Amino acid sequence: MPAAYAGGASGARTAARAGSAIVVVDAFRASATIAVLVSKGARVAPVASIAEAASTAADFRVGERGSAKVAGFDFGNSPTEVLEADIPQGSTVVLSTTNGTRVIEAAGRATPIFAGSFVNATAIVDVICKDLIELVTVVGCGWEGHRSSEDEAAAGAILHRLEVRGARLDGRARRVVNAYISRSVGRLRSNSAAKRLKRLGYERYLEFCLREDAVPVAPRLIDGVFVEGRKKGASMCEISGHWAHPKSRNSS
């Protein structure tokens, strides 16, 4: 299986035109938030604009702009907040974020589309390999059109697992994997995105988003909503256990 890396909305559109499956990676924090919501049995509808999110029928609305919660929405783009919230199974949740949902929209012609990151890297790879997908592109969302080290590192976590399972990486994917292997988590805790989240008081969310395989689900976009892409979803006990006793990698 060939596996590639691309960046941003333009990369997502190019991959979709090539007939590639796409894994959208928004490490801080949309991918983790989607994974947690799907683990709770919610149906997550990503939309690009706040206006569309506000007007779409839903049980809950989740959103941020400039990393801060959208006024009037039920939750910000905060995985630990939604993990602890009472969101009944089967709820419809509309999600709109600065970067992640825009890239998801750009990838809209691709089949399939997954939301992946550190928190569910292995689960995403399990589904890709089980479904015998022939071409996959992992797309790092970046921040407002610019590259972001956390998205490239999380993409590297997914691509590294794909390579272990036999995928053939292109040159850019190889560079992303090499950077993932060599870059410490400590450096991601102090990059510009992390500093922005810390200023807003979101350091706890940041730590959650860096936990590899903390939320073992594979959100897959079907008919405009993310649902569990595996036959058997992860239980909240599994997620709580991973969160309480996370795996560490290169933590210094």
Q: Please, could you describe this protein's structure?
A:
The protein has 252 residues and is an alpha/beta fold. The chain has one domain: putative 2-phosphosulfolactate phosphatase, CATH 3.90.1560. The protein has 12 helices and 11 strands. The chain has a 5-stranded parallel sheet with strand order 7-2-8-1-9, sandwiched between helices. Strands 3-6-4-5 form a 4-stranded mixed sheet. A hairpin with a 2-residue loop joins strand 4 and strand 5. The protein is globular and about 45 Å long.
The portion of residues assigned to helices is 40-55%
- Count of discrete structural domains: 1
Beginning-to-end CA distance, first to last residue:
34 Å
Low-confidence runs: 233-237, 240-248
Structural key phrases:
252 residues, alpha/beta, putative 2-phosphosulfolactate phosphatase, four-stranded mixed sheet, 42% helix, globular
How do you describe this structure in short?
The chain has helices at residues 8-17, 30-39, 50-55, 79-84, 100-106, 121-130, 149-164, 171-182, 185-188, 192-199, 203-209, 236-244; strands at residues 2-7, 21-25, 43-46, 60-65, 68-69, 92-96, 113-115, 136-140, 168-169, 219-222, 225-228.
Write the layout of secondary structure elements.
Elements: E1 2-7, H1 8-17, E2 21-25, H2 30-39, E3 43-46, H3 50-55, E4 60-65, E5 68-69, H4 79-84, E6 92-96, H5 100-106, E7 113-115, H6 121-130, E8 136-140, H7 149-164, E9 168-169, H8 171-182, H9 185-188, H10 192-199, H11 203-209, E10 219-222, E11 225-228, H12 236-244
Parallel strand pairs: 1-8, 1-9, 2-7, 2-8, 3-6, 4-6
Antiparallel strand pairs: 4-5, 10-11
Helix pairs in contact: 1-5, 6-7, 7-8
